[in-house]
Specification:
The structure holds 2 protein chains of 2 kinds. By secondary structure, chain A is α+β, with helices and mostly antiparallel strands. Helix content of chain A is 53%, strand content 21%. In chain A, the strands form 2 sheets. Chain A has a 5-stranded antiparallel sheet, with helices on both faces. A two-stranded antiparallel sheet of chain A has the order 6-7. In chain A, helix 3 (82-100) packs across helix 6 (133-164) and helix 5 crosses helix 6 (133-164). Chain A is globular and about 50 Å long. The relative contact order of chain B is 0.05. The chains are: A alpha+beta, B mainly alpha. Chains A and B meet through strand 2, helix 1, strand 3, helix 3 and helix 5 of A and helix 1, helix 2, helix 4, helix 6 and helix 8 of B.
Chain lengths: 165, 947
């Protein structure tokens, strides 16, 4: 089971935080700080796995990968395969790449909701449900369309409300 | 008007994008900007306009998720917004809920039940999906109970996407509301046969999680998983199935034979590294008895080593670590790579390699390996250096120093470790030094030598990481001082000025050791009729005596008897240490002076440990002083009497110290029987009352009153005395009663007589009355070790290592089974048992026959208890199936609710009871036993059709 997905930049600022078990906000921040400390202590071109037993319990593992200024972290337990998690991370990045056409850190900063939508299409409650990025893109685009539709309808009632005054 | 204000709000409201931009542009302290934004949000979120509210909630969620801002105050607003008609707002609301609600403490969650139910039934699949996601995060047992029916319906949804999500959610429902297993489990299993790979993946994922917690219940599904393993080519799916089989394999040995072949096929065939690694891991961890498969896996691991990817190297080493205990050859084959990896740039790889190197260590090569590792430790960064040291310590001490033959070597290795610049393993080295001292008699001379080297080096005192080791060195030097070549040197080392750098707890050990050394030193000089006996000859001879080297043989004849009287025979100053520095009166005086100078100031220390111990030593010094010639001049008449007293005293103390300390089993405390009449867990409520009574008396009479009354019997006024007497008798009687009841916690009264004896060490065998038999064993053992030493001095066999019969290893804590998992598996077993009959009608012929066999197995067992029940159990199982189906159809029905109130763990038995009550009530107990039997038999019977 996947325990959490975190995106943070190379200065330790979180860009997306998703834990699949409840952690209070302060604890999340603390975990992010400590994870960043772990990551920044690691050299380049070394293996992508880190033992995180001390932070997340006995058989927790962490795999991370750095894309330009962005670290992507997956925390998971023994019922996931380490290399498969790396593949999944690739799926996630590919999907974002398709959704934002050449994704950059800024895209993730300004598209809080959409990044969550993408991740939710891939993982539900720590279970991997979709590994095809094109399927995910399709679903996310449908969601965006619905949101836009809702927004355009929204504009009408508030204006009518103003006119009726 | 309200509409207008909300419009104004929304016109001037900052959007999430504005907030993010603001945060990025803001120079200085972010928190002030955030708190300003929070103030806005608090206002906006109360708006009646949904748009304003949604934007506020979205901003708040953002701040909560990425900046850790508390948003519990907005819980209700999120719930309010979730009922919005607009998908956008609903999404914002559910996202807020899933990121911020705490299922344990957010009490408004229940208000969401209705909305969630509505959304689960929505025609818009994205709305359904929103609800499914939200439920996962905020699910409480109540919510799980209330929404199980809707989720159950979705398990058959025509939209694959929804069905997948519902399947994944079922895991949470099972966890929180085990009764949902009865409703959903069958449909979950049915989905295993779906044509949509994604759906099968989701189901297998759920089973993988379930099997992790309690594999036994899912053994009956092994055939389905086997089919997937053989037929599927999807890597994700295969990985999960392999994960499940790793859990199932230990429960059913016959699985191995069937599984190894397809797993090896996948391993040979696949190009995907993830699947290949999973196959390797499955083989080495669960099927290591299949030699050919292991060979194949090790071959694959070698391929991994040849890749450039550090991940593959790391995982390969990890797999090798798993296989190492059973197939050491696999490690040996890759020895070069493993050793090379010790200097890899990657810490992960280094650590794994270290584990493997240690796996190769054995009795024969431990010396060589340790040499190599120590060299690596010297070259490594501090962290890895300590990792290496820790591993060496752990490996060498495993099973009570199993692999160590030459303890002199090992002890000096421990001493060398101290010299490694980054060494921070003080505590472990301390423990081992002391432990070896107690267990291995033959190692003591070397221990004392190593201890001396450490103590006399003033540089070590400056390194706080080494203080614990120095403490051990001090203790060893004190305890086994008889092996020391130069006790006075040790006293000097123990009292050197730089000891002020030590923490007081360790300094206390130093003082105590100095005390021991001093005592035994003096005792030795007395027993050899050395310095102090010279006093008999009077002042006239003094000058002469002083210049003379005072030394007689190691042990004078007349004294040997008294030594043999000691409870444990000890070789005082054995022949090996004959080269002991000659004891001269001068040297004694020097030492005494040194002690007085160094410990004098400590006698006023605020640390009780230091204060008491240094006072003890000073007291001893005082005593000796009286005997020494310089002081003799003044009080010659007391000479005889005083001297004998002192001799007696020193002998007593020396005897006390000479009692050998042995290792004590960690469980020995448990062996102390509980005194009769002691009730643990007794309510101590009445203690207050008793204490209240005591309150007034304690300060006057409890401690002082008695001593006054006994000492000043004649002086004090009879009036007052009687009053005090009264008080004291009252308190003493209470005290006596307390003592009677809790005698266990009082020190033994004899202890008081030994004025100069220090507190008995915590693990002194003699103090634990019940450790006596253990102590006897120890004595026997030590005696044996003595004999062996005498006999075979030249051959140098492995010295005897004292071991305890029990509890030398770590405590094996009782395995705790989580109740929840129990509940789930209980329910699963129920369903699977019931599943048999129905599954045959549903699935193909092969399954049909197998399930028949399954039932047959069940019947066989029933037969054994009585042929009558044959038909009954069949009927009853069918009956239960019918029940089940019914409960599914009317899953919202009362029956389920009624069931949920019953204790779930008894659910199965209860089911049986119900069955019986339909038939003959008499056989109740029998039938019950049968139920248990079928459960036990299940695992034997079902996989048969796999084989």
């Amino acid at each position: 089971m996947i325990k959490g997905v975190i995106l943070m930049n190379d200065k330790g600022k979180p860009r997306l935080v998703k834990f699949y078990d409840y952690h209070p906000a302060e604890k999340q921040q603390e975990l992010i700080r400590r994870l960043y400390a772990v990551l920044s202590s690691r050299a380049e071109n070394v293996s992508n796995f880190v033992k995180v037993d001390s932070l997340f319990g006995s058989d927790a593992r962490l795999v991370y990968k750095t894309y330009a200024t962005l670290h992507i972290l997956f925390i998971f337990d023994s019922s996931e395969n380490e290399l498969a998690m790396l593949d999944l991370m690739q799926v996630f990045v590919e999907t974002m790449d398709k959704c934002f056409s050449n994704v950059r850190e800024l895209d993730i900063v300004f598209n809080f909701n959409k990044v969550h939508a993408i991740l939710d299409e891939i993982i539900l409650g720590g279970q991997v449900l979709e590994t095809s990025s094109s399927e995910v893109v399709k679903a996310v685009e449908e969601i965006s369309k619905m949101e836009r539709a809702a927004n355009s309808i929204m504009a009408v009632p508030s204006i009518t409300g103003w006119q009726s005054r | 008007m309200s509409g207008g204000s909300s419009l104004l709000d929304s016109l001037f409201q900052r959007s999430l994008e504005d907030l993010i931009k603001g945060l990025r542009l803001y120079i200085g302290d972010e928190s002030s900007f955030i708190s300003k934004s929070l103030d806005e949000i608090r206002k906006e979120i109360k708006s009646t306009d949904q748009q304003t509210k949604a934007t506020a909630l979205q901003k708040l969620t953002y701040l909560h998720s990425l900046y850790g801002i508390d948003m519990s105050f907005a819980a209700f607003h999120a719930i309010e917004l979730s009922s919005s008609q607009h998908f956008n707002f609903k999404r914002i609301a559910y996202l807020a809920a899933s990121l911020s609600f705490d299922p344990l403490t957010t009490d408004v969650i229940l208000l969401l039940t209705h909305q969630l139910r509505k959304d689960l039934q929505s025609h818009n699949s994205h709305e359904v999906s929103l609800a499914l996601h939200a439920i996962y995060y905020i699910c409480t047992p109540d919510l799980a109970r209330d929404l199980t029916p809707e989720v159950f319906i979705l398990l058959n949804s025509s939209k694959g996407n929804i069905r997948k999500k519902a399947i994944a959610l079922v895991l949470r429902l099972f966890e929180l509301f085990p009764d949902s297993v009865r409703v959903c489990f069958k449909r979950l299993v049915e989905n295993l046969e779906n044509n949509d790979l994604g759906i099968v993946c989701a189901v297998v994922g759920v089973f993988c999680e379930l099997a992790c917690k309690e594999p036994k219940s899912y053994l009956p599904l092994a055939p389905e998983f086997y089919k997937i393993l053989v037929d599927s080519r999807n890597n994700w799916l295969l990985i999960k199935v392999l994960k499940i089989f790793v859990k199932l394999a230990p429960l059913e040995p016959r699985l191995g034979k069937r599984l190894v072949e397809p797993i090896c096929d996948h391993l040979k065939r696949t190009g995907a590294k993830s699947l290949a690694f999973e196959c390797v891991r499955t083989i080495v961890s669960s099927f290591s008895e299949h030699e050919s498969a292991v060979r194949l896996a090790v071959g694959k691991i070698k391929e991994f080593f040849n890749e450039d990817d550090p991940n593959l190297k790391y995982l390969g080493l990890q797999a090798l670590t798993i296989v190492a205990p059973k197939h050491l050859w696999a490690v040996m084959e890759n020895k070069d790579f493993v050793i090379k990896s010790l200097s890899d740039a990657d810490v992960n790889i280094k650590l794994e390699a270290l584990q493997l190197v240690l796996a190769m260590v054995s009795e024969d090569n431990v010396v060589d390996f340790c040499k190599v590792l120590i060299n690596y430790a010297l070259k490594s960064d501090p962290e890895f250096c300590n990792e290496i040291l820790g591993c060496i310590l752990l490996t060498c001490s495993k099973n009570v120093y199993e692999i160590i033959v030459d303890f002199d070597w090992y002890v000096s290795l421990l001493g060398e470790m101290v010299r490694i610049p980054h060494c921070q393993k003080g505590e472990e080295i301390e423990n081992q030094l002391v432990d070896i001292g107690m267990r291995v008699k033959d190692a003591r001379p070397e221990l004392v030598r190593v201890g001396r080297d450490l103590l006399i080096d003033p540089a070590l005192l400056g390194n706080p990481f080494l203080h614990r080791i120095l403490s051990a060195a001090a203790w060893v030097s004190g305890e086994y001082v008889q092996f020391s070549k130069n006790p006075s040197e040790i006293v000097e080392a123990l009292l050197q000025p730089r000891t002020s750098l030590l923490p007081s707890s360790i300094k206390a050990v130093y003082i105590q050791s100095a005390f021991k050394v001093l005592t035994l030193y003096l005792h030795y000089s007395i027993s050899t009729k050395g310095v102090i006996s010279s006093a008999f000859q009077g002042v006239a001879d003094l000058m002469q005596e002083n210049s003379q080297v005072v030394r007689t043989g190691p042990v004078a004849d007349s004294d040997t008897e008294s030594f043999e009287d000691m409870s444990i025979t000890h070789e005082w100053f054995p022949s090996t240490s004959l080269k002991v520095e000659p004891i001269t009166e001068e040297s004694i005086i020097n030492i005494l002076n040194l002690v007085e100078i160094t410990l004098g100031p400590l006698a006023g220390s605020h640390e009780v440990e230091l204060l008491e111990r240094s006072r003890n030593v000073l007291g001893l010094v005082e005593l000796i002083r009286e005997e020494l010639p310089g002081y003799l001049v003044k009080r010659e008449e007391d000479n005889d009497k005083g001297q004998r007293k002192t001799h007696e005293m020193i002998k007593l103390i020396a005897e006390a110290f000479s009692e050998e300390l042995g290792p004590v089993s960690a469980s020995s405390q448990e062996k102390v029987p509980m005194p009769e009449g002691m009730v643990l867990n007794q309510s101590l409520d009445d203690l207050d009352a008793i204490c209240g009574d005591f309150g007034l008396h304690i300060p006057t009479s409890f401690s002082l009153g008695r001593s006054i009354s006994s000492e000043k019997d004649d002086v004090t006024m009879s009036d007052r005395q009687s009053k005090e007497e009264l008080e004291s008798t009252e308190s003493t009687s209470l005290l006596a009663e307390h003592r009677k009841r809790h005698g266990l916690y009082y020190l033994q009264s004899q202890k008081k007589e030994m004025v100069y004896d220090d507190y008995p060490p915590a693990n002194d065998l003699k103090t634990g009355s019940n450790a006596d038999d253990e102590a006897d064993d120890l004595i026997k053992l030590t005696e044996q070790s003595l004999f062996t030493k005498k006999k075979a001095n030249q051959a140098r066999p492995r010295p005897v290592v004292v071991k305890l019969d029990d509890g030398d290893g770590p405590f094996i804590s009782a395995k705790k089974v989580e109740l929840k998992d129990d509940l789930i598996s209980g329910a699963v077993r129920d369903v699977l048992l019931g599943d048999e009959a129905t599954s045959s009608s549903r699935t193909k012929k092969s399954d049909k026959s197998s399930s028949k066999r399954r039932q047959k197995g069940k019947l066989d067992i029933d037969k054994s208890s009585g042929p009558k029940e044959d038909s009954k159990s069949m009927e009853s199982s069918e009956l239960e199936n019918a029940n089940l189906r019914k409960s599914k159809l009317h899953s919202r029905g009362k029956e389920k609710k009624h069931r949920s109130t019953a204790k779930d763990r008894d659910e199965h038995e209860e089911g049986d009871k119900q069955k019986v009550s339909h038939h003959h009530g008499k056989h109740k107990s029998r039938q019950r036993a049968d139920g248990a039997l079928t459960l036990a038999a299940q695992s034997n019977v079902i996989p048969d059709f796999l084989l």
